[in-house]
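Hello, quick one for you while I still have it in my head. A protein chain has come my way and I'm curious about its shape. I'm sending you its amino acid sequence along with the backbone structure tokens. I'd be grateful if you could look everything over and explain what you see. Here's the protein in full, and shout if anything looks odd to you:
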Amino acid sequence: MKPTKTRFTARASSACFLAAAFAAVAPATNAADAFPCQVLKIVSPYPAGGTTDILARLIGPGLSKGLGVPVIVDNKAGASSNIGTESVVRSPADGCTALLGNNTGIAINRNLYPLKYEPTRDLTAVGLVASVPLLLYVNSELPAKNVTELVDLLKKAPGKYSYASGGSGSPQHLLGEMVKQQKNVFMVHIPYRGQGPALQDVLGGTVPIAFETVAALTPQLKSPRIRVLAITSAQRFAKLPDVPTMNESGFKDFAFENWYGLFVPAKTPGPLVDRLSQELQKVLKSPEVTAKLADLGSRDVSGTSEQAKGFIAKELPQWEAVVKRSGAKVD
């Protein structure tokens, strides 16, 4: 029996050695640090290709590394982000499902749609992710080299031209309506199920005019198929120094940015919200993500959950006023 016992002891020793080796290279975690989900799902309430989707996929790898679990992005588009947003509102409050939401779904739609939920009550902010200006751009076949020429074109042919947006009530829709209101012009609104499809149709010439965030339009800025006329930020964007602001182009008080944040169901336990918030802040402060956000035109809006809530509370009345000023209606 001794040889058998010796072989068993050797195998046991080998198993112990391998376990120790794995422990040496594995992340130092304990029960208190372990994130209680097998997977973190981030719902992007728009199709792939838009700014929300881009940002969700930008922060996903860093969150996965920090939390120690896989992160997947689930695109649930429709109803100007209401479908994806409501799906997160109805999800279990266990920290395993989050929303990459924006000012459309959180601050604007509540003033346009008969929602079955209240975004600021039924969701809690983990933290802000980005705040980016928008660009007014046109298909290059449109005979307008600047905003003044575009306005003249619209005045000469009321209703002949249309503009695209990612959906009724989106900032892109509201800004288009404000152009119509301020300059007393008329162009037809064509809503899409997300900015990605809207962008593709402007590139293809189906619709000639649109607003889009710097983030989503960056890959197309050198395309001969589009022409950028103006930017909606208060100052010019350093990476596009020749593009004037809307205010410089003859509009009044036309300075707007799209902001984006990570949200979870409102009843998610505080410690889980804090953990997600801490990891999100680490991701946003990493050199790689910081550089990419700057390239997308975003300013630094990272901070705690409470800071995000305070920011959003100030934004709500501002976007309510924009909806009223624009005269926008749900199509």
Notes: Strands lie at 40-44, 71-75, 97-102, 123-139, 162-165, 188-191, 209-213, 226-231, 257-265.
